[in-house]
Design a protein that fits this description.
This protein is mostly beta strands. The protein has a single domain, classed as Beta-galactosidase, Chain A, domain 5, CATH 2.70.98. It is about 5% helix and about 40% strand. It is built from 2 helices and 27 strands. The protein has a 9-stranded antiparallel β-sheet, with no helix packed on it.
Length: about 350
Amino acid sequence: MAVTTENFGKTTTNETIHLYTIKNASGMMAKVTDWGAILVELWTPDKNGKLEDVVLGYDNTDQYLTNPSHFGATIGRSGNRIEFGKFVIDGKTYQLAQNQKGNNLHSGPDGYEYRLWMATAQTDQSVTFSLVSPDGDQGFPGEFRVSVTYTVTDANELTLTYDGSCDQDTVANMTNHSYFNLNGCDSREPVYNHVVELKAEYYTPVADDKAIPTGEIAPVKGTPMDFLTAKQIGVDIGSDFEQLTMCGGYDHNYVLKREKSKDMVKLGEVFVEENGRGMRILTDAVGFQFYSSNFINPDTAHGKRGVVYDKRGAFCIETQYFPNAINTKSFPSPLLKAGENYHTVTTYQFFTK
C-alpha cells in the first residue's frame, strides 16, 4: 500500500503542515504529521474486524500547536523528568527550563513536538521525519540530528525507530507520548477495564509528587505496582499506596531486563476482553513509563470528532531511559557521546482474540 499525503493546516509562520497516511493490506492505518512528528490516528481491528482509532488526539493542527497533554507527540531531546532542570557533563553545568514543579519535564515548553520536521524518506509502509536541533537548543549541548521512522507492517504492527547523532556529548532520551484507549478513542470510557501485563519485576519509586525517582530500584512483588500477573488497571489504582497517592495513579518508570544490551524484549501487553482488541509492546529500551492519564484536563482536551477526554481516559507506555538518569549514577546513562549513533526501537503489535 502506498503512503498518501494531504495538507493538515499551517504553522504560525504560515508553513504548510502535512498529514501522512500509512495503511497495510488488512486495513490497519496510522496517520502521522510532520508537525512534531506526531501520531494523530491509529486504526486497528477488534475481534469482529471493526476498525477503531485507539489513540487520543485532535482533529486539526491548531490544537496540536499547543497540545498541553502531548497527545501522540515525539518527545525530545530528553523525555520525562530531570531534577531542577539541571545536569553536569564534563564538569560543565547545563540549565534547562523548569516547567513542572521546579523540574524539567519532556525537555521543557519548546519540545520537539512543537517543531516542523522534514519528511526525508518514504516507502510504501513507512515515513521518516528528521530534525536538526542546534547547539544550546532547550539548554542542551551540541547539534543533535535526529530522525523518527513510523512503519506499519502487514502483521498489524506499528514500529517507531529513532536514530541520531550529536557533535558534542549530550543527553538523548527520545520517546513517544501516545495515549491509548483500546475501547476506541471516541468511547468516552476510562481504561479501568484494560487488562495489563508488564514484564517488569522492578520499578523506580519516586520521592514525592514531583515524581523524581529516589534512586532505588524496588521490587513490584506484593505491591499495587505489580502487573507480572495480568490484571485490570482499575483493580489497584485507587488503593491507599503511597506511590499511587503521590502521583494520582500510575506514573512510574518500570525496569526491563534482557540477556544482551539492546535486545528487543517483550515489555508487556494490554487487552480488552469486551472487544477482543490487544496490544503487545516490544522495545530495546532499558525502561518505560506507565502512565494512567491522571492529569488530563477536560477543559483543554477537546479531542477528535468532538469527544472531550477526561482523567483516566487512556494509558501511556513511554519507552525510555529512567527519569533523572543523567543525575543518578546507579541508573543506565542517557549520555550520548559526540559522534556516536543514537538508536532505539519500539514496536506495538496489535492482535485480537
